[in-house]
Amino acid sequence: MKITESNWAEVEAYLKHDDRCVLPLGSTEQHAHLSLSVDSILARKIANDAAGPLGVPVFPAVPYGLTPYFMAFPGTVSLRLTTYAALVRDILDSLYDTGFRRILIVNGHGGNSPVQPVCAEWMQDRAEARCRFHDWWRAPKTWAAVQAVDPIASHASWMENFPWTRLEGRPTPPEQKPYVDFDRLRDRNAAGVRNLIGDGNYGGHYQKPDADMLNIWDVAVDETRALLQGDWA
Question: By its UniProt entry, which PANTHER family does this protein fall under (predicted)?
Answer without folding.
Answer: 2-AMINO-5-FORMYLAMINO-6-RIBOSYLAMINOPYRIMIDIN-4(3H)-ONE 5'-MONOPHOSPHATE DEFORMYLASE, 3-DEHYDRO-SCYLLO-INOSOSE HYDROLASE
